[in-house]
Design a protein that fits this description.
The protein is an all-alpha fold. It is built from four helices and no strands.
């Protein structure tokens, strides 16, 4: 796998996201400010994992020439694993509950949204003369 300057940027951003998410997950419950409304944490999980899904998909998209279905599958499976790992990690954090199915569902919905958004303007379009290959002007 050959990393271009663009793919390096996406990978660095994803690794920073991963570090920030791990740090936030390790924050003890007594150091988390009160929520402004019930279930606000679900919205936070959704937005955080949307960012992660977007960054991971863009990093993969710029690193390799995956078929879209493979790219979506790899990104989604990786984000599911990260969401499960985050919930397990929180069970070892003082004052945190972890193993919250609602949080995990919000993580997966957010990751799906981020993955979908990464394709919105950046997905390679098939070449009209050679179906199945990206057009040169839209290659990632």
């Amino acid at each position: 796998m050959r990393l271009t300057l663009a793919s390096r940027h996406w990978w660095i951003l994803f690794i920073l996201w991963l570090g920030a998410t791990t740090w936030a997950s390790a924050t003890p419950g007594n150091r988390i400010p009160p929520l402004p409304f019930p279930q606000a944490d679900k919205i936070a999980h959704l937005l955080i994992y949307a960012a992660g899904g977007f960054l991971l998909t863009r990093a993969l998209m710029t690193s390799r020439n995956f078929r879209p279905a493979v790219l979506i599958g790899v990104s989604f499976v990786a984000m599911v694993a990260l969401g499960i790992g985050d919930e397990i990690h929180q069970t070892f954090t003082p004052g945190r509950r972890g193993s919250d199915r609602g949080d995990l569902l919000a993580d997966l919905l957010g990751a799906s949204l981020g993955i979908a958004l990464s394709f919105w303007r950046h997905a390679p379009l098939p070449c009209p003369t050679h179906p199945g290959t990206p057009r040169p002007d839209r290659a990632a």
